[in-house]
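TA notes, week 10

Several of you asked for a full example with nothing omitted. So below is the full record: structure tokens for the whole chain, then the designed sequence directly under it. When grading your own attempts, check the secondary structure regions first.
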């Protein structure tokens, strides 16, 4: 391998790592607040990419039907829960929150598709359209079992991914799509080495969004509420923070990140209804490196996953995924050796 090839693979790895970085941040955010390993994260990103592709071909995005279907189910679940708790007076507010608000981006996307809006408007509409998906799924599936064990939540999350894959096939069909590049042109470095503007956009977006992510968590009231819930759910409840509300906020933020990821990767790879699963798995490897709690270490792990994937594809394209997922073995072994096992945990295992 020459230095030129290594440099090309390194740039490609940084681009992949930028995507996994954003996805890993979303996974850590949801897990730290709700204890849910949100497996369908990649599916939301794939739906955003397919939505943008539908805009570019002049079609009304099928995502509108998907979001409205989830909104109708969420409204039904919330209304039933309120009736059981004898809180029927809150039904109009529930319809507004779970029915009307998710319908607003659907209306905007429908108008954008009908009137032939510019590409920038279509990109914004594609991202906004998928933002309600994760909160709606959380209300329908995870909120009723919020106190279940992490293992139960993981199993439900995995089942939810397969359900979303089926819905994706139903709404989007089996055909793959790829969009036009968001940025054209190349940057020429020394000795004739070039870097595409799309790669620069992906890496730059990851850096900027990570910085904004940090500022939101450190400087805003909502970010502090998320941090408090992640550190101590009981303590957060005692000071007036509602974990259910912060959980919905976490899902919304993660869904926004997934939408941005979908828009960024849509021009560089052909996306199918089930393409998001592998993206979510590789981001999960990065999140595991960060222990599902540390954002900086997750970011480092995401870059490492991207670089390993890039160089592994050069050595053996057929085994690149195997090599990437093999990173979990030494990481889990190291964490097992470093973690402190209490007697209470051992007693629970014996029982």
């Amino acid at each position: 391998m020459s230095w030129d090839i290594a440099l090309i693979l390194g740039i490609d790895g940084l681009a992949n790592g930028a995507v996994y970085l954003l996805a890993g941040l979303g996974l850590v955010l949801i897990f730290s607040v709700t204890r849910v390993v949100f497996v369908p994260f990649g599916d939301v990103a794939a739906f955003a990419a397919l939505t943008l592709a539908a805009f570019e071909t002049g079609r009304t995005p099928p995502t509108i039907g998907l979001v409205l279907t989830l909104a109708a189910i969420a409204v039904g679940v919330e209304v039933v829960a309120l009736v059981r708790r004898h809180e029927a007076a809150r039904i109009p507010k529930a319809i507004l929150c779970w029915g009307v608000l998710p319908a607003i981006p659907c209306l905007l996307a429908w108008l954008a598709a009908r009137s032939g809006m510019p590409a920038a408007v279509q990109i914004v509409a594609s991202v906004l359209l998928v933002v309600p998906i994760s909160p709606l799924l959380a209300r329908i599936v995870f909120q009723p079992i919020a106190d279940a064990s992490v293992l139960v939540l993981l199993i439900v999350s995995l089942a939810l991914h397969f359900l979303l894959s089926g819905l994706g096939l139903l709404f989007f069909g089996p055909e793959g799509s790829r969009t036009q590049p968001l940025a054209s042109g190349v940057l020429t470095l020394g000795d004739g080495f070039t870097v595409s503007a799309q790669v620069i956009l992906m890496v730059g977006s990851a850096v900027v969004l990570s910085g904004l992510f940090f500022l939101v968590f450190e400087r805003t009231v909502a970010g502090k509420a998320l941090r408090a819930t992640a550190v101590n759910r009981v303590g957060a409840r005692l000071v007036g923070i509602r974990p259910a509300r912060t959980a919905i906020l976490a899902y919304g933020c993660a869904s926004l990140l997934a939408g941005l990821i979908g828009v960024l990767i849509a021009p560089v790879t052909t996306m199918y209804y089930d393409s998001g699963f592998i993206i979510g798995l590789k981001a999960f490897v990065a999140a595991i490196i960060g222990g599902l709690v540390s954002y900086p270490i997750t970011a480092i792990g995401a870059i490492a996953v991207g670089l390993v994937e890039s160089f592994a594809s050069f050595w053996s394209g057929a085994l690149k995924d195997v090599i990437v997922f093999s990173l979990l073995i030494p990481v889990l072994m190291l964490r097992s050796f470093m973690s402190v096992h209490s007697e209470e945990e051992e007693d629970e295992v014996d029982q």
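Strands lie at 186-188, 194-196. Use that as a sanity check on your answer.
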